[in-house]
Amino acid sequence: MSIRTRFAPSPTGFLHVGGARTALFNWLYARKFGGKLILRIEDTDEKRNTEEAHAVIYQGLSWLGIDWDEGPDKGGDYGPYRQSERNEIYTKHFEKLKADGHLYEDGGAFRFRSPRKTVQVEDLVCGKIAFDMSNPATHPDMTIRRPDGSWIFHFVNVVDDIEMKMTHVIRGEDHLSNTPKHIELYQALGAEPPKFAHIPLILNKEGKKLSKRDGGSSITHFIDGGYVPEAVANYLCLLGWSPKDNREELSVAEILELFDLSGINRRNAIFDLDKCFWLNGQHILHMDPARFVELAKPYIDQAEVLYGTTEALAPVLALAQPKIKHLSDLPAWVSFFFTEDFPVDPEASEKVLQKEGAKGRIEALSAALNALSDWNHAALETTLKATATALGVKAGELVHPARVAVSGRSVGPGLYEMLELLGKERVLARLARAAAQAA
RNA sequence: GGCGCGUUCGUCUAGGGGUUAGGACACAGCCCUCUCAAGGCUGGUGCACGGGUUCAAAUCCCGUACGCGCUGCCA
Asked: Is residue A379 within a helix (H) or strand (E), and if so which, with residue range?
């Protein structure tokens, strides 16, 4: 039987990193073993059920590179894929349970009568666990329908997993204790329970369940914050799973190759934003330049940098790619390439341009560069160093003023590469302008 | 309270009877260097505790503590 996994979020208007990681593991498992991933929206609580809330889920998953085979937006053979549209199906199963004597009424609500036996859970991550359900005081009969006719999570979740032919339920460990109840429901409905895999939870720095208030708990934070999706997906996979060979930076293809449920550990993990940040820099450093351009463009566009064509932008980005850790840092690294009206960092200007003798050194460098016919970074370096020697100063005494003169900043790409790309004319003009203001 | 799961550097993890307990992030120092990164080198901190089993336990068993989860007419 072909594998079917699912991600079943509630449309809260917020895609939690824990949920995203659950989705990722379901996706990896389905893709690795040629199965299908189903997206089901658990929107029985109508109050927070909005189109925007659905969009947040679709966008967050897509951004991470997760695609699904069936879902509200895709259709499929087992729809509808929103619980709010599945009332008839729930009613059908409810009537069956009722007819078979599994239900009883309690204050207008309906409860499921537990068989009161020991339930064995065979979890692919946690192993075999026996739950003694015999004591009603500790395991009360669960409610499955409220007096107003609305449904309770446990019931609709199980009905949907049966109807949608799920073979594997991969979900957060917070559901492990609910699993025996779910198995009782499967059995009462005459269905074979799926395989379960409960994955450890993601905690905040205080060791508590990651909540909305915690920085970085929403995928939106990463989308808006200049992260690259492959790095975030990589990091999320490293929480509770590892390739076991000391590698940290992994492509999705590599993870797909190594991933299996049996490799997931049972220990809750604290989310470490620092490490995610580091991994982001590693992915940027090593990614294909074309991919970098693709990811960088929206940030450049948003900053309204008038770069003209992609062909003009690409070489500039190539200088920034090995140095930055966040895509949102990009505008400051590229904007001065495309305008003469770039901002000048007052602190850098004060420290470098106003330094004793800066004017003379800039003018000397300018003269030397003016005489240079072969404008490439190697020749630029040779010329600058020769000029420094002639002046009897360290190369840095020319490098720093030149950097501030052409970019307005004290940090940036390698100077010689930057000068080469800027071109002789612009470099000389900017040096002249800086010399006029220097001490 | 009851039930379930867990506990290896601050954090993420590898190791699952014999290891100088490995890697990564972060931190500190050094090297490289035009800035910032990257890279290289070095350093410190860790098997929760107590009992067993065993020639030998981080590793297996029991207990304790602590953490997390569930215990809803939330999902």
From this structure: helix A377-391
